[in-house]
Design a protein that fits this description.
Number of domains: 1
Helix content: over 70%
Strand content: under 5%
Shape: elongated
Order of helices and strands: HHHHHHHHHH
CATH architecture: Orthogonal Bundle
Number of strands: 0
CATH superfamily: MetI-like
Largest sheet: none
Number of helices: 10
């Protein structure tokens, strides 16, 4: 008996149920890890000695220059190592894919936060020193809060890039949205265009509204609250 074709709603439910959780997991973890590394690199490039600046700059150049797909393949080969680190609760291949996305995103986030830090007026650091604050205290309490606010629009764009980059994890077997959609096209080849249209709509819904909200509304809200910066 021939299998009945799926409805549009069923396609949406399949992708949202089986693929979206993995896509969001990859996105959130990659952004958070990339954030930590990126901020550290940015601080190193702005305030660090020449050796630290050289290492941070080299990191940016290296991981911005390596194609993400190659990075995924390299780390997928090392997936048993990630399994030992993360344990059985998180599949090793997902940990490897997350690491690849994170270290690449960090190279871009570093530039975002470095530009934001440099956008904070130097006079504010001098004023902090004049009232007895150390450079570390001034950076933590004055410079970074303003830099984070200034970086929000660009950081929201990085979120949109990363969530779309998670589709590359298909190549190493992570069951994210594109992988689930591809499997559906194998089962229902006549609905290839419809399935691709469904996933296109889902990606749009998870990128455009979010970048608009964070990039515009959040920035305006923070400015009205007087959280640093011009």
């Amino acid at each position: 008996m021939q299998q009945a074709p799926p409805s549009l709603l069923e396609l949406f439910i399949n992708v949202l149920t089986y693929g979206l959780p993995w896509t969001l997991l990859l996105t959130i973890l990659s952004l958070l890890i990339g954030f930590g590394i990126g901020v550290a690199l940015a601080l190193g490039r702005v305030y660090g000695p020449k050796e630290v600046q050289w290492v941070a700059k080299g990191y940016e150049k290296l991981f911005r220059g390596i194609p993400l797909l190659i990075l995924l393949f390299l780390l997928a080969v090392a997936s048993p190592i990630f399994f030992n680190i993360f344990g059985p609760g998180l599949p090793a291949i997902v940990a490897a894919a997350t690491t690849a996305l994170a270290i690449r995103s960090a190279a871009y986030q570093s530039q975002i936060f470095r530009g934001a830090i440099l956008s904070v007026e130097e006079g504010q650091m001098q004023a902090a020193r004049s009232i007895g604050m150390t450079d570390t205290q001034a950076t933590r309490h004055i410079v970074l809060p303003q830099a984070f606010r200034l970086a929000l629009p660009s950081w929201s764009n990085e979120y949109a890039v990363v969530i779309k980059d998670t589709s590359y994890a298909l190549a190493v077997g992570v069951p994210e949205m594109v992988k689930v959609s591809y499997n559906l096209t194998v089962d229902y080849p006549a609905f290839f265009f419809t399935i691709m249209l469904v996933i296109t709509v889902i990606y749009f819904l998870f990128t455009d509204p979010v970048t608009n909200f964070v990039g515009e509304r959040m920035t305006k809200k923070l400015r009205t609250l007087g959280l640093g910066g011009r």
